[in-house]
Amino acid sequence: MNEMSILMHLLSKKRSAYQIGATEEEILDILNVKNKNKSIYFQNLIVGLSNYLIPLGLQIKFNSLNLHWYLSSDKEITELISANPFEGKPSLAATLLCTLTSCLKNSGSAPIQEIRNLRNKKDIMSDLKELEKEGYLIIDKTTYQIHLTPLIGYKLDLHKLLINLSLKLKESKI
C-alpha cells in the first residue's frame, strides 16, 4: 500500500456512530513520520490528496470538535445538507442551536434548564430526545446535563455557522 491508499483508508474509516476519519497524529504515526518537519509533510500530503480528489467530487474536511480529518463527498450536496439538515423540523434546529450555544459557553456540557431558558420553551425534552436519537448529543439523566457528540462537526459546517451568526449580530447592531 502506498501512503495515498493508507491516507484514503484512514480518512474514510468510520470509528463509531459519532466519529469518522483520523487525527493528524494518528495519520503521521501510521505513516511512520517522525522528523521535525512532520507538520509541513502532513499539510503537503493533505493538500496533494485533496487536489487529486477534487475531480472525483470528493474533498477532505476537518472536524474542529474532535480534531479529525475526514473524507466528504460532493461539495454542492454537502453544502446543501450542511445549510439545513433539519428541513421541515425548525424546532429541532432551534433546540440544537441553543444547545450548541450553551455547550460552547459552559465548556462542553450544558444544563437542560439553561437550554430550556435559551429556547424560551417549557418542554424541550422531546426535541432533546430526538437529537440524541439522531446522534447529535448525549443526555446525562443523573445530572440533567447535555453533551454534544463530534457528529455535529461532520453534519454542520460550524465555521460557516459561526461566521453567519457573527455577521447577523453585526448587522443587527448597525
Please describe what this structure looks like:
The protein is of the alpha+beta class and 174 residues long. The protein has 2 domains: 3-73, Arc Repressor Mutant, subunit A; 83-173, Arc Repressor Mutant, subunit A (Orthogonal Bundle). It contains 9 helices and 7 strands; from the N terminus they run αββααββααβααββαα. It has helices at 3-12, 24-30, 38-53, 75-83, 90-105, 112-119, 125-133, 151-155, 158-173; strands at residues 14-16, 19-20, 58-63, 68-73, 109-111, 137-140, 145-148. The strands form 3 sheets. A 3-stranded antiparallel beta sheet has the order 5-7-6. A two-stranded antiparallel ribbon has the order 1-2. A two-stranded antiparallel sheet has the order 3-4. The longest helix is centred in the first third of the chain and has 16 residues, at 38-53.
Descriptors:
single chain, 174 residues, alpha+beta, Arc Repressor Mutant, subunit A, 2 domains, 3-stranded antiparallel beta sheet, two-stranded antiparallel sheet, 9 helices, 55% helix, elongated
Largest sheet: 3 strands, antiparallel
Radius of gyration: 19 Å
CATH third-tier fold name of the largest domain? Arc Repressor Mutant, subunit A
First and last CA, distance: 57 Å
Query: Strand pairing plus helix content: what structural class?
Result: alpha+beta
Give the beta-strand count. Answer: 7
Give the number of domains: 2
Overall helicity: 55-70%
